[in-house]
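Hey everyone, long-time lurker, first post.

I ran two proteins through the pipeline my lab uses and got sequence/structure pairs for each. Pasting them in order. The first:
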Amino acid sequence: MTRSRKQRVTTKAKIEGFQMAHKHEKKENSRKVKQANKLAELKSLEKDGLLKPREVVDFARSSKTAIHEDFEWNNTKAAECHRLEQARKLIRVFVEVRQIHQMDQRVRVFTSLNDDRRIGGGYRPMVQVLSSVSLRKKLLATALTELRAFSNKYAELRELCSEIGRVIEEFEAASDTDSAPEQDQPQPTA
C-alpha cells in the first residue's frame, strides 16, 4: 500500500472514530435532555408538596408528554404486567414464624436473589437458600446491594447513613476474610 493510500485509510479511520464518538455524545446528551424534561414534567405535577401516581398517569396519557413513553399503553400488555406485579406481591407477602435465637420471628417464605433477577427473576424458598453455602453467600450479596441502595436513598439523613455505612464496611471486611470453600453443605438457620 502506498504512503498516500495509508494516510487516506488512517485519516478515514480517524474520521469514522470521531463520528462514532460524536454520535455517542449526541445520544448521551439527548438522553440527558429527555431525562431533564421528564423530571420537569413530574415536578410540575407536584401539588402541596405531594406527587400522586394517578395524576402522573393521567398527564402521561397525552403522547405529547415526555413521560408518555415510560408507560405501556396497550391494555392487554399492561394487564399482564399488572398481574405479574400482583404475583410478585403475593409471593413477597407470605411469612412463617420460625425460632431464631430462641425467639419467634416472622420470616419471608421466599426470597429473590440478584443473580436470579439478572436472568429473568424468580423466588427461592428461604429455607433452601439458607441451607446452601453458595446461595447463602448470594443472599448476603443481595442484602448488601439492597443496604447500599437504602443508604443512597436516605443519604441526606446523616445520623442514619453513618451507622449503615459502618455496618456495610464491617460486612465487607468480614466478607474479605471469609475464605471458606463454596461447597453446598447444610448451614444453621438460627
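...and the second, right after it:
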Amino acid sequence: MIAKNIKLGVSAVILAGVVLLFFQQTKDLLPEAEVHETHAGLPARLQIISIGVDAAIEQVGILADGSMDVPKNPADTAWYQSGPRPGEVGSAVIDGHVDWYFGAKAVFTNLKNLKVGEHIVVMDEQGHPVSFIVRRTQIFGSTDDATNVFTSTDGLAHLNLITCQGVWDQIANSYTQRLVVFTDQE
C-alpha cells in the first residue's frame, strides 16, 4: 500500500491497487450547523450478533511502507486510528481478516452474510455502545476507486467494515477483491 498526501488535507492510500482517500479535516468541509458529532470514546469491541462476531478492536495506523496496518490476531479487528472514532462525524473504518493461514477462519469469515438493515455495535473503552445499521455492501476490485470507503461529507457518522474477498493471488500475496460493508449510525 502506498500513501500520498494530496491537496485539501486528504491522504490517498493504495491498498492492493484500490485507491482509498482519508479526509483529515472533514468537519471543516461542512457548515457548522450541519455537524452532529457525538463524543465517542476509543473503540474497544465490535459486536455483530447476526454473524457471531464479538471481537476486540486493535488501533492501527499507517506502516512505514505506507500500508495500513491490519489486526495481529485473526480473531480481532483493526480500527484506523487516524480517522474518526465510531460515532464521530465521518467514516470510521474497521478491517479484519476473512481467513488465516491454511484456510483457518477469522473474524470476518462471515462478513459476506451481513444483510441491509442488520445491526452492528461498537463498544468503547468505557462500555458505552454506538449502534450502526447496514446500509449496503460493495465489492471493490484491485483497480477500483474506493474513495467513498474513507470519506463522508454528509455530516453524519458512519462505520465501514472491510475484509478480503475473491481469489488468492500468490504473486501479489493478496486477495483480488475487497468486501466493504457501509453502515450508518442509528
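Reply from user beta_strand_b:
Welcome! Quick read of the second one: The chain has one domain: 40-140+156-185. The domain at 40-140+156-185 is CATH 2.40.260.10 (Sortase; Chain: A;).
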